[in-house]
Structures
1.
Amino acid sequence: TIIMGMPHRGRLNVLANVTRKPLEELFCQFDPKLEPSDVSKKSPKSYIVGTGDVKYHLGTCIERL
């Protein structure tokens, strides 16, 4: 298990490029009118975490073997 903490600056970059969280998931979390496509719904290994009080408190949890 790896737990990373960091300031807001660069967090979205780390989520997208280091943890490989799909950009589509990130955009859908920022705009509630957006819906994830069928492709991203088929990714059960990644799910949304975060407090929800500020959009930059988004996180991710992903399982890799």
2.
Amino acid sequence: MKTSVLSAFVFAVMVSGCATNTGQLPISRVWPTGFNPLVAPEPVPNFPNVHIINGRIVVDQEPIYIKQVEGVNVIVWALNTNGPYFFPAKRGIDFDSPKPKHLDCDVVSRDPKKFLCTYEKSDKRKYAYKITVTDGTKEVESDPTVMND
């Protein structure tokens, strides 16, 4: 009995929510209605997403703010798993000099949709890097930054 009452309540709330949106634009991040965490989740600093929009690279965080730890720090960039673009091995992410200490970067376990960089705790500063992606025929590049804390 409790389950059916709860189900009816949830259904009523959902239906009434649809009715109150009559004549308005849909609740979406596409429309300028403000930030909606259900549509556009909060970025995770160590795991930035990389989008290719109209032939240009867009990182969901700029700069990427990393709260460093004493050991190994990790950043994994990810492309759309269903998209045509992938990271070229060894050069998908290329940090400018000066680089973070003991920097090592490559695709993740032969998955060219993800690119991993590890480094030891480094100076608090902004580190410039280049992202390179390809669809197998042409390359697209961008120059975002990482900010160590």
3.
Amino acid sequence: MAFCSKVRSLLLQRNRLFSSSILSPDSKTPLSSKEKSRAALTLLRFEKNPERILDICRAAALTPDSHLDRVAYSQAMFKLKESHYYEGIRSFINESLTRPDLKSERFVSHFIVLYGKSGLVKDAIKLFDEMPNLGVPNGVKALNSLLFSCILGGEYGEMKRVFSEFPRKYGLEPDLDTYNTVLKGFSESGSTNSSHSILAEMERKGIKPNMTTFSVVIGGFYKEEKLSDVESMMILMKKYGMRPNISIHNTQIQSLCKLKRSDRAKAFLDEIVSRGMKPNCVTYHLLIYGFCKENKFDVAKSLFKEMVVDKKLKPEANCYFTLIYFLCQGRDFEAALGVCKDCMAKGWVPNITTMKMLVDGLISIEKVDEAREIIGAVKEKFSRNAEKWSEIEEGLSK
């Protein structure tokens, strides 16, 4: 017994050294789990070698319990998929499933979703089938994850098959999340008409739809330009005693913008505001993106001003990034610079592609000092690219 205990202790010590040497080579003390997660995320961002990516994940001892770790899992799977290293994905997930701390329906469900994100839907189905062999009973949470996995992998036919066969096969009763996931699949695949039969089944089973249900279906009907069906959904909402909230209206605005009808979306916003509905940051971001995609930059700038000055709303980082990027695309570099300065004052810096576009644009209109200022901010934020930016900065003096 003493010998076994010593072996376990040595293995634990070896694992700690392994994780520290990969995640933080210069660290002399063991990293906390949060420090491991942050170090893993930073390394994964720039790592391209598939085996090295797997080593980073192993060293961090990732767990789906942590938000940071879930982000790291997704980033790792995305990079492995890009490298077509599917065997590595399978190997890592199978390896993770041997960990005693990850043997629960919640964690297995996470791995089922990761298979879908990696385009390995057959493996996701196989894992669901084999759950009892892992000591984890098949449950409705795992079923919902499997349906979502099929959607992520673009396997809508498999989603329909799983939905029609698996509840009966495994003795599971679909819940609201099950139906909402299936409705999402129908809406994304251009089969929103099928939602009528799903909603009827929900009514028969006494499962009341929620705002997510209607948001998904309405978005699907807009995408297919079936406006009479949108109206029928609005009537059905009233039947259930629900009034469209700003989330539902944001879905309508987003759908109109995707159809390149941003002017109609703006008119719709004015209409709901006149009825007392208060737009939020998401509303304006959707409209700004829609008008930018249609190259109507003056309207986008006006909406941004309306959001900040008139409505006193606080745009999120992505709204700033969107506007800066598209203003650069439209060669309105002075306006982009103004928005960028506001953005950086809040501690947010757009990605390097957008910033390079802005710097090049400022140089092209002879705003060299402003370009230098931007370069300084970027060097501080993206230290890995500091040398590249220093070279660009040196070129400004020539």
